[in-house]
Amino acid sequence: MKRVIALGVIAIGVFATWFMARPARQSALGGAQVTVAVATPSPDWHAEHPDTALEARLQAIVSGAPGRYSIAAKHLGNGSTARVNSDASIPLLSVVKLPVAVVVLDGVDHGRWSLSTPITLLGLDMHPRGRLGDRFPRGGGPVSLYALLDAMTTRSDNTAADALMRLVGGPLAVTEWLERHGIRDLRVDRTERSLGNDWYGLPPGADTMGSAEEIRELRARVPGAVHDSAARAMLLDPRDTGTAEACVQLLERLWGGDLLSVAMTDTLKSILGRCRTAPHRLPALLPKGTPVARKTGTGGISSGVAVAINDVGVIRLPNGDEVAIAVLVGEPRGSVHRAERLIARVARSVFDAWSTGDSTGSP
User: Fold this and answer.
1) DSSP string covering 337-361
2) Do residues 125 and 139 touch, judged by C-beta distance below 8 A?
3) Which residues partner with 322 through β-bridges?
4) Positive/negative CA dihedral, 177, 179, 185, 190
5) 158 contacts 124 by C-beta, under 8 angstroms
6) 193-212 per-position pLDDT tens digit
7) What pTM does this model have?
8) In the chain, alpha helices (H)
9) Average pLDDT over the chain, rounded to whole?
């Protein structure tokens, strides 16, 4: 009996030590915060449980479909996972704007700038498509950091992305930040403008940083054969690529509060929840009103082959639990709609599998 009591006392002591060491969190509405100088608990609180039945269903969805696939999903409540080629590298395209947003908000957390910091757009930031390119074809402003962040994330504005990449020190600074935080297999190597120039086949030095209209005209003069060759080369280019596994890891750590302050985490979650691009991907087949916070990536099409069609994000299940999911489709043939339908089917399969009871994955 004494041994039982002693073990109980030890268990209570261990729980109390853990509870007191938990970092206090501040609500998005500005509640009081108590600072405790301890490390944030690992987001891998739940042991992983591979859901082999779900993985088989996802494999069946992509089987025979033209293209390359990298798929990963993780239940952020109980640790269930489903993966299909999750370590395959696929061109990320505008999915890179998600880590860019995280690095920008990390700068806010460290006092380097604020959400209201005015940013003047430069000629090298401008793109031939998008509201900012139309409004400031040769650069201008200023535009608040938050407005750029919102445009980059909700509308995938390339001008906003390049201005923010310039702010944080360039594309490689984003990759280095990710690696310092233990997130690998997510490469950010070029600005959106440089990536676009490479896809069109512009030779180095051809872009003289003119207006948005001049860039459009310059790209339009590229011979078709040169453009097709450049587009094919991009399919094999290791730059600006990533895996579904790394995307889910980034989302899991972001949602777990491991990368940003509570305020900046909530800010980014809110912006991602208002994504307006490519509605026929992750949310398309989910029950109406299902909350989905996400970032898309879409490549150009040359000779009937797209660079990639992507969507990554977090889906909320009916019971309030959340699922981080990434579906990257490289080199899809045929219509964009076909690739988008595949992404939607993957999302619905994950939603259905993990919305029924307390799934902990297959044994």
Assistant:
1) HHHHHHHHHHHHHHHHHHHSS----
2) yes
3) 316
4) positive
5) no
6) 999 999 999 998 888 877 88
7) 0.84
8) 2-21, 52-62, 97-109, 131-135, 145-154, 158-168, 171-180, 192-200, 212-220, 224-236, 244-255, 262-272, 336-355
9) 86
